[in-house]
Design brief:
2 domains; 12 helices; BirA Bifunctional Protein, domain 2; 18% strand; 423 residues; alpha+beta; eight-stranded mixed beta sheet; single chain; 40% helix; two-stranded antiparallel sheet; Helix Hairpins
Length: 423
Amino acid sequence: MLDIKLIRENPDALKQALTNRNAEADIAGLLEFDRMRRAAITEAEELKQQRNDVSKKIGALMKDGRKDEAAAAKEDVRKTGDRIAELDEQVRELDAKILGILLLIPNMPLPSVPAGKDETANPVLRSRGEKKKFDFQIKPHWDIAADLKLADFERGAKVAGSGFPLYTGQGAKLQRALVQFMLDVHTTEHGYTEVEPPFFCNSDAMTGTGQLPKFAEDMYHIQLDGLYPVPTAEVPVTNIYRDEIIDAELPLKLTAYTPCFRREAGAAGRDTRGLLRLHQFDKVEMVNFVNPGESEKQHEILVGEAEAILQKLGLHYRVIELCTGDLGFSAAKCYDIELWAPGVEKWLEVSSVSNFWDYQARRARIRCRDANGKAQFAHTLNGSGVALPRLVVALLENNQNADGTVTVPAPLRPYMGGLEKLG
């Protein structure tokens, strides 16, 4: 959430940011509600001072026997109190209206974010590795998974519907191995503390990281309890410190595995085959809490930590920077890491690494202390470290062999009982 003071003092900057994002917001209405709120507060404070002054005189009037004047003064105090109550209620109503608008305004891109209308304007910053060449007819991952009995998409759909895969045999073992491998790398090499958060969140948590109210239709919701299955571990892990002042040394780096659940109502009909777009998938997430002024530096470190996973697995990937028109709702700056999948001949996003500045911390009221001990909003960052479905797609398609087997990358073999090939 943006600071209302920032908007009040420089509304044109926000309007330009919204234009660059291809987004809209009722800035005029917000500023009018803000003006009305400040006017109501000023009037209420003045009336409270008047009431205090008159209240002090009532005792003196009674002492002097001027009961009629004292009674009139009491009536004035009562009327003033009624007006103050009206103004306090106005402020509460205006607070709700202001918050309702603020929660729907996306974050402002950092000045370094390239301007652009959509994903076609995202610059490629770097790539590692090369597209693998094959001397046989390669297969897409869904055929590999079916032939090797790694996943059963039909039976998964029978149980829960499309987008809910059933992993079997070595496929299930591969999922478990990847999760364990990534958690071990992040905790032993990158300085993360592992947490296992709840797999469900309440509406306050979903609002704190920006999923609500903007993306309500993309989330699963249990009406009876008001809980949401997590769309990403970013939500529960970031909200660990909601309404708190973090006294730990920063940056504070947490990593977690969770299953993720997304309805993705706006993505119906896109990439429905195999593992390309799912309603349930596994992911290892990295969340950083940092001091203001350090988040841009830490952002570069964070994307490097996500890249390290892909480098260890020997996969061809590229890093792109999202332009203003493709930037996520809560992000001030974001890098996407994409893997090359030769079977489907596509670049697949496997990690989105975002710097949220103080946007999430302001929504969730997460603070830290400056050098003088004064509380201030922290900066939050997060990145997938990494998401499994498209990682598995790239592993299967890039490591397939002419005999139908799939070579297991060397770093994963200890997690798979020494298995060198899926087959």
